[in-house]
């Protein structure tokens, strides 16, 4: 069923990004002298965290418009975005936990960045539950209210003592080696392509089913 939904362009793009991702993850020599092959988790964890924050911003925008306009398509888009957000955030927390064991010697520490990401995931699950109950406006206001979590996640390492490292990549510059940086961005594009395609597929299936 899924393969039948692939256009020729989709197929070529899937193959290109897939083989590029496999090359970057398993063939390219990016071993770290301290973390060894676990360093490759960087190319999964960091892009997924970026995507998680991006989805959160899209959910905030979608919730705002959902309050103003009672369109079924907006309601549907927010549900699909929420589902993808929960999956992406869960995997980012999981990979971060594994990476944390190598770096800190523990799968979980009372680190504010990790805790706020978990709180965000639970909050979006509650948002999904409100939408499921048909409380669209209440869900929209709730989502906008918990948007403050974005600020907390961004600056929590500066405000409080934290074992999590500071941001290595921002609009000003990067402290990451360029040999790692371009791999990060290619992985990010690969995940975006996969999730955009999955988003299109889910929306199409739901619209046809309704």
TrEMBL record:
Any GO MF annotation of the entry: heme transmembrane transporter activity
Keyword Ribonucleoprotein applies: no
Domain of life: Eukaryota
InterPro entries in the record: Cyt_c_biogenesis_CcmC
Keywords: Membrane, Mitochondrion, Transmembrane, Transmembrane helix
Biological process per Gene Ontology, one example term: cytochrome complex assembly
GO CC field: membrane
Keyword Membrane tagged: yes
Chain ranges passing through the membrane: 12-28, 48-72, 79-102, 114-133, 140-160, 180-203
Listed name of the protein: ABC transporter subunit C
Gene name per UniProt: ccmC
């Amino acid at each position: 069923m899924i393969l039948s939904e692939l256009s020729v362009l989709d197929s070529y793009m899937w193959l290109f990004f897939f083989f590029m991702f496999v090359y970057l993850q398993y063939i390219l020599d990016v071993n770290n002298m301290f973390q060894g092959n676990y360093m490759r988790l960087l190319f999964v964890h960091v892009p997924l965290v970026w995507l998680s924050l991006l989805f959160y911003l899209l959910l905030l925008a979608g919730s705002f418009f959902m309050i103003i306009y009672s369109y079924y398509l907006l309601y549907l888009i927010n549900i699909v975005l929420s589902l993808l957000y929960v999956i992406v955030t869960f995997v980012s927390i999981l990979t971060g936990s594994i990476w944390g064991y190598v770096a800190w010697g523990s799968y979980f520490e009372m680190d504010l960045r990790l805790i706020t990401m978990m709180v965000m995931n639970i909050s979006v699950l509650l948002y999904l539950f409100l939408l499921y109950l048909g409380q669209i406006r209440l869900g929209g206001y709730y989502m906008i209210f918990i948007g403050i979590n974005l600020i907390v996640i961004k600056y929590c390492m500066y405000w409080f003592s934290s074992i999590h490292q500071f941001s290595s990549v921002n609009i000003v510059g990067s402290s990451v080696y360029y040999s790692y940086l371009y791999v990060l961005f290619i992985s990010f594009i690969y995940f975006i392509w996969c999730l955009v395609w999955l988003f299109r597929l889910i929306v199409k299936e739901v619209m046809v089913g309704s």
